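Async update (no meeting this week)

Hi team, since we skipped the sync, here's where things stand on the single-chain job. The sequence we agreed to prioritize is pasted below, unchanged from the tracker. I ran it this morning and attached the output directly underneath so nobody has to dig for it. Comments welcome in thread, and please keep replies under the output.
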Amino acid sequence: MSWDKNAACRTPAVNREIFFPISYAGHSPEVKQAKAVCRSCPISPACLAYALERAEPEGIWAGLTPQERRTIRTRTRQEATR
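Output:
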């Protein structure tokens, strides 16, 4: 993954543990922090594509929780079968 070297989550100031919280509840402080980092990230589209292609089961990727990514994958499959 060469695209990830420019990711906002790779900066030393970011605690990478926030991207793998104990709970993915929308009000979790870690989830809020991770999503904020992702909003400022220049490679968010590539990150999302990577996570969707690999069906990443854990973590915040491109500002989306596992459930949010599952919803996108389900919607994409449904649209493909129409």
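Quick observations from my side:
The longest helix spans residues 66-80.
The mean pLDDT is 92.
Reply here if anything looks off.
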